[in-house]
Amino acid sequence: MNHHLPLVKNWPGPLAWRYSFDVAATEGEAPYFAVFEADFADAAAMAAAQASSHGQRVAADVVNYATGGLVVIYYPVQDGTG
């Protein structure tokens, strides 16, 4: 992650991002070793960030640490404060 997180840090597009290596399941063993989440202005901004040359470098680096593969989930976030 000494290489991947600096790539993410300098990735133009995300409004915010978070990650954790402390992933636990409520029962049994967690199927994941890490979680990463990024916020974008909208789906178009996310697509543009992923398609950028920097986004391509971020994606290409995933195989260097996620040797078991990865699951990507896209979802719009609803504001629940109202």
Automatic annotation (TrEMBL):
What sequence ranges are listed for the domain EthD? 2-67
Alphabetical list of InterPro entries matching this protein: Dimeric_a/b-barrel, EthD_dom
Q: Please list the GO terms describing molecular function.
A: oxidoreductase activity
Q: Which domain of life is it from?
A: Bacteria
Instruction: Cite the Pfam families for this sequence.
Output: EthD (PF07110)
Per its record, how is this protein called by name?
Answer: EthD family reductase
> What is the originating organism of this protein?
Streptomyces nigrescens
Q: What is the lineage of its organism?
A: Bacteria, Bacillati, Actinomycetota, Actinomycetes, Kitasatosporales
